[in-house]
Every structure is written in C-alpha cells, then in structure tokens.
Amino acid sequence: MSLAPAKATAAERASARRDALLAVGMIAPAVLFIVLLVGVPFGLAIYYSLHDVTTGGTAVKWVGLSHFVELVGDRNFQQALGNTILFTVGTLVTVLVLGTILAELLMRDFRGKWVVRFLILLPWTAPVALGLIGWLWMYDSVFSPIDWFLRQVGLLGSRDAALGVLPNLYWLGDKVLAKVSIIVVNVWRILPLATVIVLAGLNSVPRDVIEQARVDRAGYFRRLFQVILPMISPILMIAVLFTFIFTVADMIPIFILTRGGPANSTNTLASLAFFTGILGGNLGRGAAIALFLLPVLGGVSAVLLRLIRRSEVT
Amino acid sequence: MAKLTVRDVHTHFGSVKAVDGVSLDVRDGEFLVLLGASGSGKTTLMRTVAGLEKLTSGEVSIGDRVVNGLPPNDRNIAMVFQSYALYPHKSVYRNISFPLEAVRTSKEKARERVEWAANLFGIGHLLDRKPRMLSGGERQRVALARALVREPNLFLLDEPLSNLDAKLRHQARHELKKLHGRIGITTIYVTHDQVEAMGLGERVAVMNFGKIEQIGKPSDIYREPANTFVARFMGSPAMNLISKDGDILGFHPENLLPVGDFQPDPDSLRLNFHVSGLEDLGADLLLYGSIPGADTTPMGEGTDVIAKLPARLVSSIKVDAEQEFFVRERYVNRFDPATGRRTTAPATA
Fold first, then answer.
1. Which residues of B touch A228 (CB under 8 A)?
2. Is the N or C terminus of chain B more exposed, i.e. has fewer CB atoms within 10 Å?
3. Percent of chain B with pLDDT over 70
4. Which residue of chain B has the CA closest to A211?
5. Which of A215, A222, A314 sits opposite B132 (nearest CB)?
C-alpha cells in the first residue's frame, strides 16, 4: 500500500513529461515559422543596413549608420517618406468616409441589396495583380475610359473644356494625377474590408439606443455624429489600423502602375526600398530604407491600440 | 401635455397582426397602463404611438394633431425603454441634456433643466459618471430624468421596472406614481405585471392578440372582468373559473371562504371544496383543491381551484378532506361558456 502513491506519482511524472513534449511539438512549427520568416529576415535587414552589401559581390563592409545619414539628405528618400504619409492619410480619410456611408446604406433594406453588397465586396476578392492591370487600362494614356467619359460630357479635349484641350489627362504621367491614381486604387482595394468592419460595428449598436435618440428628437446627422459614430469608434479604430498597415507597407499598386514615376514622384518607402535594394542591387541601402518604416508602424499601431482600449465604453 | 387618441389602429408585420384594430382615448394628464402577456401587442401599440413602427391603417393623434406620418423626432414624446437605452459613451449629464441639445436650448437653460430633472430623481451626485458605473436603479433614474428633462406631450414607458430587483421595484412604483401626481404628463405605461398595473394605473387596458379585451379602472377590471381571458389574467393567484350547470362561474381566491370560520349570506353560492394541499405564506393561507361536481376546464384541464384565506382568521382547515365553502353572491362572476363573455351586468352600471 505504501508503494502505491509513489508509483502513481512516477506515472504522473512520466505523463507530465509526455504532455510537455507534446506541447513543445505542437508549438514548435509556429515558433519556427516566426523565427525563420520574421526573425531571420529582420535580423538580416538590420545587419545589411549597417553594412555595405550589394548583389554584385560577396564583400561585406561595416559602414555603421552612414546609410541612414545619407538617406536623410536624399531627395528621393524625402519624397518617398512624404508620399508614404500622403498616400496613407489620403487613403485612410477617404476609406473612412466612404466606408461609413456605404455601411450606413447597407444597413437599410432596399431592393437588390444583395447585388450591391456583392459588388462592394468584389474588389476584395479579386487578385491584386489582376485588378491592378484593369486599373492600368483605366489610367491608360490613350485609351483611358475615364478620359473617354470626360470627353463625352465635354469636360476634356475641346477648346473651352474645363480640364484642358488635350484629348487625355495622362493619369500616370502627371506628378499630381499619378498620386491621385495611387490613392484611388488603394481606396478601391481597402474599401470593401473597411465597409464590412464598419457594418459589423453598426450592427452592434443596440436598436433601442438609436430609437431612443429618435424619440429624443435627434435628426439623422445628430444621431450619426453624436450617437452612432462614438459608439462604434473602437471598431472604426480597427478599420483605421488595418487600412494604415495595408497602405503603409504595400508597394504593389506602385510597382504595377507607376514604378515610382514619373520622376520618382510616386515612390513610397516600401517601393523605394524594393527598387533600391532588390532591383538596384544595393542591399544595404534598401534595408536601411525599409527599416525606416519600423518605428513609424510600431508607434502608430501602439497609439491606435491605446485609443481603441480607451474608447471602449461598455 | 396633451390627450392621445387612437382610432382603429392596425399595425401588421407581414401576416402578423401585432396590433389589430385598437381604439383608445387617453385624457390629458391620465396614467394609462397597457397590460398584456408578451406577444399581446402592447409594446407594438406603444411603438406605433411613438412613431417607431409604421401603422398599417387607422389614426393616431396627439393633442389635436394627427401624427400618422410624423417621425418620432417630430412628435414631442418621451420614452423610457426597458433596457433604459442610455448613451454609453456620454456622461449622465450629457445623457440627460441630449434631448435639450436637439431642440437647441441655451447652455444655462439646459443646465437648469438637467439639474432640476436630476434632483427630481435624486441623482444629482452622479452627473459626471458614465452609465456603466451605475447600478440598475440609478440607470433607470437617469432614463426617467432624460425623458422628463424637456416638456413632452406624452410620456411612454416600456416595462421600465422589469430590470429592477423586487425590492427596488416596489419603491420605484411608488415613486413613479408620486411623480405622475406632481408633473401630470399624460402617460402610457406598458407592463406584463398585473400587480404593477393595478398599483399604477388610473385606467388599465388589457390586451390580447393585438386587441384590447377590456379597459377600465383597475378595481373594476379586477372585480368584474369582461371575459374569461381577463379573469385569468388579473389577480395573483388568478380568478377561479369552474363549469357548473352549463355556466362558467368565476370568483377570486380570497372570496372562497370556509363555512364555520365565516358566516355565509342566505344567497351565497355554497360549494364543497376538497382541499388537497396547503401553503402557509405567513399572512395568508393558500388552499389548493377541487370542487366535486364542477370541472375546471375553463382554466385548463387539471388546474386546481385556489382559496386564499387570511391566516389569523382561519382555524378549521383539514387537508385531504372535503369541507363546505361559500362565495358571496356579489363576488360571483358568470360567463357565457360559448363566448367567454361576462353575462352578469356590471354592478357599477
């Protein structure tokens, strides 16, 4: 009898060891995944950014912070930093306004609601590259349907047209219009997700509270700005965070539409890092550009998450 | 302040007739209770009056103005929802002042009104808090203060006490009644609790299947229910209904008394009551049993007949024994077995 408990604990210890092994086995793939695909490239990027490395040779020379110092004085880098902020803020504001309006509309009952819902979600389901080739045609210097439409309504291509006498606007060939084009494409891509997020938020506002506001004599805009938006602000912040991260670090629209042109006027930090480091072969400098994003992304995310926590009300 | 007139109102949701032809006149300053089980249409009727539901046909007027097409924000009504529907992101002060902001009241005037309403309900010390920091009773007071902060024509309350615990509910009921006496705004109060209805209403309208079954003073409805539905709805325990000699007889449990402890009148209805169970509630005794020769099908098969007796006046009850009981003639209600309608003429008429 006196041996029984000791035996039991030995068995328990063995079983505990098996459990621990199993736990390690289960979590290992995730840890490996993060270490190999996030940790190693990240460490490599820091290493590269402090060295002179190119794709042309095997020589690696320590240069300290000189990449960063050079970048700060570089016109293309400054332009890319400005563009990153411009594209992100422009996309964010447009997406928030349009997303809220769309979600508001989708809350109502009307005929053919499912068609509208389907169409709104469509850009999200389409592969990015395919969608962007479509947009390439929209912005084509000769065959742009947008230009065609503007010509048809008399805003473009005639002597007294508001947008000029030329038959085309050259969307991607004009420094300002190219930036607008990028923002439009970003909005087109992110709007569906933002709409769905805001829609979820709107659905979570109790019907009683909105009805109470109606009885309390609040008109539509007072209800929207004083009751509905403050109540869904935590969810709006999530939409902001997603949009922010998507836009800041994304270079696909720029790569496909403008390649950073004309004259480097549409480069962002992400695209400039790619063009410099991968296509240009200057790995060290490319890594340094990419690392500039890190504190920005980290800082903004921290602020947003904090705001979300603070604005949670119930 | 205004009277409310409802003329043959129907509110249908698809094939569901939630309100099915209701007419109602509420006097200026009256306190009317809409009483009914869930699904009886009482809340829909109130929401139709508020303009939150579109009526299918009929007419609603507040004061002398037909409000059929007006949205809720143009009806100058105040409403307290069952959930209180406080704005969770606003302080108590801003919650109460919200209806004033919508009608563009000056800051000083608004402050004055908010403080008046807050003091009326004893929540002056809570003005800086957010709703999530309040107890149920405090939330209810905030909702009431918000409803009363401007001068509404009509005050609509949708089961405002049902989220409070039983103790608070008594207190709140009493306060509501006092409040109504003081400010005298025409009030519609929706509840499923007949005790609340009895205690609060100047008049009570009992609803069932979207129609008003009976409307009148609470005591009249209690003593002389218009039909068997109302009879079974009022009172706790409800009125006993028995089939006897082709008639349905109804009498409240407190009117079924044992011969011996009580003295019957010559014309009293005498019944043999077989007592099968007894509950001592302290002040009252509840006796459960059956009446041989009479069935209780009008109440539902197998339901017990109940007698409720003041415990201190009773000495002769034996369980599992038959004993002679009686009901004084003026407390006996007779209903037509075919229609369920009351056949004895109301004593008040």
1. none
2. C
3. 98
4. B52
5. A314
- Nearest Cβ partner of B98 from A208, A211, A216? A216
Cβ neighbours of B156 in A, within 8 Å:
215
Q: Which long-range contacts (CB under 8 A, 24 or more apart) does B6-9 make?
A: B6/B45, B6/B49, B6/B58, B6/B59, B6/B60, B7/B58, B7/B59, B7/B60, B7/B61, B8/B57, B8/B58, B8/B59, B9/B45, B9/B48, B9/B55, B9/B57, B9/B58, B9/B59, B9/B60
Tokens standing for B332?
Answer: 């006996």
What is the rounded distance in angstroms from the CA atom of residue A113 to the CA atom of residue A184?
Answer: 24
B148 and B79 Cβ atoms separated by less than 8 Å: no
What residues 211-250 of chain A have any CB closer than 8 A to a CB of chain B?
211-219, 222, 226-227, 230-231, 233
ipTM for the whole complex = 0.81
Give the pLDDT band of residue B349 (cuts 50, 70, 90): very low
Q: What share of chain B is helix, strand, coil (3-state, %, to 5)?
A: 30, 35, 35
pLDDT in tens, B128-182: 999 999 988 889 889 989 998 888 889 999 988 887 777 778 888 888 888 888 8
For residue B346, pLDDT over 70 is answered with no
**To the nearest whole angstrom, how far is the Cα of B173 from the nearest Cα of chain A?**
22
Kindly report the average pLDDT of chain B as a whole number: 88
C-alpha distances (whole Å) from B124 to each of B83, B112, B152 are 22, 12, 22
pLDDT digits (tens, 9 = 90+) for B247-279: 889 999 999 999 988 899 988 899 999 999 899
Verify whether the Cβ–Cβ distance B52 to A211 is below 8 Å. Answer: yes
- Per-residue pLDDT for B61 more than 90? yes
Question: Which chain B residues in 115-144 lie under 8 Å from chain A, judged by CB atoms?
Answer: 130, 132
Mean pLDDT over B231-250 rounds to 86
CA distance B76 to chain A (A): 7
Q: Count how many pairs of residues, chain A against chain B, have C-beta atoms within 8 Å.
A: 70
- At A5 the pLDDT is 53
Give the pLDDT of residue A16.
Answer: 87
Q: Which of B154, B161, B248, B149 is CA-nearest to residue B197?
A: B161
The reply to whether B72 touches chain A by the CB within 8 Å rule is yes
- Whether residue B77 lies within 8 A of chain A, CB to CB, comes out as yes
